[in-house]
Design a protein that fits this description.
Elements (H helix, E strand, L loop, with lengths): L2 E6 L9 H13 L4 E7 L4 H9 L3 E4 L6 H15 L1 E6 L6 H7 L5 E5 L12 E4 L16 E4 L23 E5 L9 H11 L2 H4 L2 E5 L6 H10 L3 E4 L4 H6 L1 E6 L4 H7 L4 E5 L5 H8 L4 E5 L3 H15 L2 H9 L9 H9 L3
Parallel strand pairs: 1-2, 1-4, 2-3, 4-5, 5-6, 6-7, 8-9, 8-11, 9-10, 11-12, 12-13
Helix pairs in contact: 1-13, 5-7, 5-11
Length: 341
Amino acid sequence: MNCHLLFRFDANADIGFGHAMRCLAVIEALLSSNVGISVLAKALPQFLQASLKQKQVQLIHLPAESTKTDELAYCAKLIKQLGGKLIFLDGYQFDQDYRQQLAQLPVKIATFDDLNELEDLHADFIINAMPAADQLGYQLSAQGEGLFGLTYSVLRKEFLTIDTKSLADKTHLLINFGGSDIGSLTLLVLQKLVISAPRELLASVVVVTGAGCKNTNEIDELTKQYGMKHIHQCQHMAQLLNNTRLALTAPGAIVYELAYCRVPSVFLIVAENQVLSAKCHQNYGWCDVFDGREIKQVNVAVDRVLTLWQSFDELEGMYNKTESLVDGKGAERIAQSIMGV
């Protein structure tokens, strides 16, 4: 099929990078097809722009001050110019009115969604990898297709080349709260760890921060002081997760990467849209979930990490429950479905 696909997403410190990263996984899966791909964005950090350029994906900048009307008119113009057959949306800024107007254009619509909070997504393909996604009551047209459940978990290609290590061969305790750390938990968690954790545990800590993190200098100073490792804008996340024995993180897009790399995890929720997904994964037994918006829960989560780190048997039980949860073929399945339009 020779056609053009348009992706519309943003990424910055306020909205995080998860929407962009899961779209990137689908883009990678599409690159082997006979298809043109463009990304339309108002805001993207430099590292994502560079990634798209390296993949020879056209990036089209949308003025930050563009109104909804301006953007829809521009989408219509692009679809006509490029011969676009499908537009792929990911972001909470695209409300029902926006989607309804977009659906009037001569193009199919695919969208990632997390909670089905809108009455109608006006989409031909709705993708939600949450285990209970098929129970959220999505409204599908007669021709619509729901791509629901862990089968559609998306992973970037760097993850698909690793050979998963045994738990005994994993050495890191990972601390990561997404590309922007919107709950400002990284420094807080580290401050609690250095008070409570033995030095030998701190030597195993790897802290990952992203381009949107606002206090990286303080984090860097603290990690150096206590012999921890700090990686800013990690370029080898798959390798790092494959070496991680236990993770303390927010349950965003990284959830599926952790499950695939078989990493027992303690999740600190930082946004309401993470609650349902995190609890679904907790039911599988490979992770524990706490509310990072409550300081008492943060303390409990740090204590849980310290307990788990000392209990190889309990960690191994969690590790064993990750087996076959995520098979790494979700992005490929999505690409195959939307290429059938």
